[in-house]
């Protein structure tokens, strides 16, 4: 729709501007490289979003809502203490950080360096990987929901489906190929450990969630958030919860990730060598609301680039006939199912079509009573 911009006789055609940005294949990094000092209108949050109360957490009772750090070194000793810590975090805030997780610091550092190296390639080299094809396993782009969202996020992403079918390394950009394959291998091992702990935290056998294929597939997203000329007008990532079972996130020292707590937004502070873990929508669904998939967001920042690496544990669009609903062992007369059963394909389709609109996809799958 054409809209006349105040003080400007030229009508604003949003779709045309979105297409121009998309077809440039240059992403947000390309805009920054062009020397812009003002935010293009497609990135500006609507007035109602900017005007909405957006408090940073201030608990009047004085109790601190903080993201716990769980030391996995404890698994060699008193495992029940680690399980209890995971249970507490998964049931309340849906987020925790892990240290002594087994992935060498050198691998973490090389992975972060690879994100910079790919996104800072010359535009024409990155453009070869630019795509909005849903089934493409390796693709670079900006805003998966560009045409659905109310405003675009200040972020570029290299998206790689690493499993369950092994990815042919040749599909990955040469500059980050070896690092991506090694990080994928290491994070998959960690995922299996975490699903074991989460199974026990639900009172189930350690291999229960893995037996449901929760750890069978994963995708890795290499996010790049360039410095922003007007960060107060946009977001790095709009508030959302994740459409997977579990997310493991490697973030750099810049920060900007926030979780929605009971009294407002809470920073997830970067902890050297730690990985951030959060419960996804699908794990909230199958745990019948016992575990919480909590909304989070990333602020845009004048300081940048900020980089992060998100690993989504999900089969994504892999063809599977498995249907997911609340785990039978967790149900009783007092605790009937909260959600209806769904295929992963239907869940992902609903999530992607909806885009990051600030509403949970889980609401759509709730059983009305």
Automatic annotation (TrEMBL):
Keyword Oxidoreductase in record: yes
Ranges where the Fe2OG dioxygenase domain occurs: 216-315
Name listed for the protein in its UniProt record: Fe2OG dioxygenase domain-containing protein
Domain of life: Eukaryota
Cofactor requirement: Fe cation
InterPro entries in the record: DIOX_N, IPNS-like_FE2OG_OXY, IPNS-like_sf, Oxoglu/Fe-dep_dioxygenase_dom
SUPFAM superfamilies per UniProt: Clavaminate synthase-like
Keywords, in A-Z order: Iron, Metal-binding, Oxidoreductase
Classification of source organism: Eukaryota, Viridiplantae, Streptophyta, Embryophyta, Tracheophyta
Family membership: Belongs to the iron/ascorbate-dependent oxidoreductase family.
GO molecular function list: dioxygenase activity; metal ion binding
PANTHER family assigned: 2OG-FE(II) OXYGENASE FAMILY OXIDOREDUCTASE (PTHR10209:SF776), OXIDOREDUCTASE, 2OG-FE II OXYGENASE FAMILY PROTEIN (PTHR10209)
């Amino acid at each position: 729709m054409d809209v006349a911009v105040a003080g400007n006789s030229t009508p604003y055609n949003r779709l045309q501007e979105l297409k121009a940005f998309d077809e440039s294949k240059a992403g947000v990094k390309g805009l920054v490289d062009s020397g812009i000092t003002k935010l293009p209108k497609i990135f500006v949050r609507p007035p109602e979003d900017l005007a909405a109360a957006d408090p940073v957490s201030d608990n009047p009772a004085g109790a601190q809502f903080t993201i716990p750090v769980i030391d996995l070194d404890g698994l060699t000793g008193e495992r029940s203490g680690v399980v209890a810590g995971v249970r507490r975090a998964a049931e309340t805030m849906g987020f925790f950080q892990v240290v002594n997780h087994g992935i060498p610091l050198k691998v973490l550092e090389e992975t972060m360096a690879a994100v910079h190296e790919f996104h800072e390639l010359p535009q024409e080299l990155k453009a070869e990987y630019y795509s909005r094809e849903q089934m493409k396993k390796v693709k670079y782009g900006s805003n998966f929901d560009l045409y659905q969202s109310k405003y675009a996020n200040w972020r570029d992403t290299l998206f790689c489906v690493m499993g369950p079918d092994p990815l042919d390394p040749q599909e990955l950009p040469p500059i980050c190929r070896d690092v991506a394959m090694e990080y994928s291998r290491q994070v998959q091992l960690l995922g299996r450990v975490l699903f074991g702990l989460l199974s026990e935290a639900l009172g189930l056998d350690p291999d229960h969630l893995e037996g449901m294929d929760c750890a069978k597939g994963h995708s890795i997203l290499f996010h790049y958030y360039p410095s922003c000329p007007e960060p107060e007008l946009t977001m790095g990532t709009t508030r959302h919860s994740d459409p997977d079972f579990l997310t493991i996130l490697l973030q750099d020292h810049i920060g900007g990730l926030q979780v929605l707590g009971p009294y407002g937004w809470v920073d997830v502070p970067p902890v050297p060598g730690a990985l951030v873990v959060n419960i996804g929508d699908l794990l909230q669904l199958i745990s019948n609301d016992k575990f919480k998939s909590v909304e989070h967001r990333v602020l845009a920042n004048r300081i940048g680039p900020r980089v992060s690496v998100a690993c989504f544990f999900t089969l994504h669009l892999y063809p599977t006939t498995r249907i997911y609903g609340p785990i039978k062992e967790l149900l009783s007369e007092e605790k009937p199912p909260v959600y209806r059963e769904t295929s992963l394909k239907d869940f992902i389709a609903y999530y992607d079509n909806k885009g990051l609109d600030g509403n949970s996809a889980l609401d759509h799958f709730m059983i009305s009573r």
